Amino acid sequence: MKKWLHKSLVVSVALLSFGLITPKHEIWANFEGDRHDKSIFDRPSDNHITSAYQLDDILVEEPLPTTAYFVSAAKEQSYIKFGTRVGPVIEQEFESKIFPKIEEAIAMTVDRTGEDKLRNLIISEKPSGDYSEKIFHIVDNASKMDVIRFHVRTENRPFEGYYYNFHYHTFEDDYSKHYDLGDIYWSKNTPPKWLS
Q1: Which of 3, 11, 80, 104 lies 20 to 30 Å (CA to CA) from residue 132?
Q2: How many CB atoms lie within 10 A of CB 19?
Q3: Bridge-partner residues for 136, per DSSP?
Q4: Is 51 a residue whose pLDDT tops 50?
């Protein structure tokens, strides 16, 4: 077997098996023997490997999602929602005033979720556009039920102008109560649509 093919195979198996199969097993010795043989077709059909591991037999347990994972995804989804017109204008105030409260709400949610349910939590990946409120939701993927919903509402306050009201809802009160995260002033002019 050509040297580059052998190296490619070793690297591929190492990556696919997350290092559980090392190049010291008998299978690699057979590949080593192939490099020295003139023709692999002259070999007997009897395979002398006494034991081999099937990649699909190795169970790799997925790690539990962490608060850091949800916080990182939340920030990414927030800036996707803001787009290139709103994001740069409100970024500083969002980072200092609103996002720490989002982190705190996410941490409380993760802490309240049992380990068995935590494995099923995912974060939605499509913030709504136009003037809709949805930034992202944390969802129980098994039941398809939202655990917590993070929204931003555009409010036109008379004689003041437009504000962005950040808030969240939880399943515990059937999403009826607004848990306020804070407001960011836009201006007296109509703000652009989300995702723009």
Answers
A1: 104
A2: 9
A3: 150
A4: no
Handedness of CA 60, 66, 70, 71 (dihedral sign): negative
Q: Above 80 in pLDDT, residue 61?
A: no
What is the SS3 assignment for 132?
coil
Least confident range of 22-31, 50-59, 84-93, 143-152: 50-59
Write the DSSP assignment of 73-127 as a string of letters: HHHHHHHHHHHHHHHHHHHHHIIIIIHHHHHHHHHHHHHHS-HHHHTTEEE----
C-alpha gyration radius of the chain: 27
Q: Give the CB-side neighbour count of residue 87, counting CA atoms within 13 A.
A: 14
The span from the CA of 68 to the CA of 48, in Å, is: 48
Indicate the domain borders of the chain: 3-57, 67-185
Encoding tokens for residue 111?
């802490």
pLDDT in tens, 169-186: 999 999 999 999 999 999
Count other C-beta atoms under 10 Å from residue 121's C-beta: 20
Mean model confidence pLDDT for the chain: 82
What does each C-alpha distance from 17 to 7, 55, 63, 70 come to in angstroms?
Answer: 15, 7, 16, 27
Q: Beta partners for 138?
A: 123, 148
* Closest CA relative to residue 168, chosen from 90, 91, 109: 109
